[in-house]
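> call design_seq(struct)
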């Protein structure tokens, strides 16, 4: 097992590796294994799967175990830290996933709250104690704090949660409210807060420790160089990268179309780059973005964002 993840050492560029499916809608474990290898070779600080970009909602428990077997074996052989997402619609489903991930030596998990309806304060407190007790004390928990599910958390909430759940080491903060992030850092500075590409430079300026990244699947070199600029205080270069990323995200409207999100867009995006093995298949009810749209998007990026293309 790799060194355990803690509130002090969790940092860097963590890659959201997608879950590939074959033409018969089965897990493509060979492609998954190869993409983990490529990400590790690109120098990312860690890799995670089965969050929204890993299509957690489309993977039942038996397939989750199959995927984690491959992920654990491959990441441990490569010496790259690994995390998994365990979000589900009920506590037992999350406990089952947590226990299996810990059994296989995965270092931590992203925990999103059950998403169908809100929890009362009492059920919320019980939920986090269930998460804490499901895993060994070395196993790291990261709260996936997204407004897409109920019980969104703020700074004062984390001040309490950090005390109640000692193996909660960080957050995946997907918001874009700068004042909210200031409050989060002031109330829970002991946790390792991660951001996304949309706010990487400003949030790291004010204390974020790293990024849970989808763009790394398109161009890992851009992300690792950006993180190095921030870590070493090259703020002007980091500002320029943030501006380019903002424009790139706007250009991704060509993939989002009439409402595509998360893994659907992520798979199309990575298929527009030669970095990873392409896999643009998603599971119903979500339909894949047409290959013709992916080709048009690649042409748009070649014309408008040549500096953001991955080059071997």
């Amino acid at each position: 097992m790799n060194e355990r993840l803690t509130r002090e050492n969790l940092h860097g560029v963590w890659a959201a590796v997608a879950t590939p499916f074959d033409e018969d809608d089965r897990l493509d474990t060979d492609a998954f294994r190869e993409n983990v290898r490529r990400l590790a070779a690109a120098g990312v600080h860690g890799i995670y799967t089965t969050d929204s970009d890993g299509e957690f909602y489309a993977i039942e428990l038996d397939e989750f175990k199959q995927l984690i077997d491959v992920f654990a074996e491959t990441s441990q052989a490569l010496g790259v830290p690994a995390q998994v997402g365990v979000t589900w619609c009920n506590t037992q489903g999350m406990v089952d996933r947590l226990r299996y991930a810990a059994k296989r030596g995965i270092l931590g998990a992203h925990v999103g709250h059950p998403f169908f309806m809100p929890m009362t304060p009492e059920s919320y407190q019980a939920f986090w104690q269930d998460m804490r007790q499901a895993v060994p004390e070395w196993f790291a928990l990261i709260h996936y704090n997204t407004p897409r599910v109920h019980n969104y958390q703020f700074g004062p909430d984390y001040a309490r949660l950090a005390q109640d759940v000692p193996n909660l080491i960080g957050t995946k903060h997907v918001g874009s409210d700068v004042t909210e992030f200031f409050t989060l850092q002031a109330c829970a500075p002991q946790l390792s807060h991660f951001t996304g590409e949309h706010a990487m430079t400003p949030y790291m300026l004010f204390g974020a420790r790293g990024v849970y990244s989808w763009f790394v699947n398109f161009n890992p070199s851009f992300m690792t160089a950006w993180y190095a600029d921030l870590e070493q205080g090259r703020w002007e270069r980091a500002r320029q990268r943030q501006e380019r990323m903002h424009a790139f995200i706007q250009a991704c409207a060509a993939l989002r179309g009439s409402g595509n999100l998360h893994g659907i867009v992520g798979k199309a995006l990575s298929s527009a780059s030669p970095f990873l093995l392409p896999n643009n298949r998603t599971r119903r009810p979500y339909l894949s973005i047409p290959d013709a749209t992916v080709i048009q998007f690649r042409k748009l990026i070649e014309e408008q964002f040549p500096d953001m293309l991955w080059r071997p």
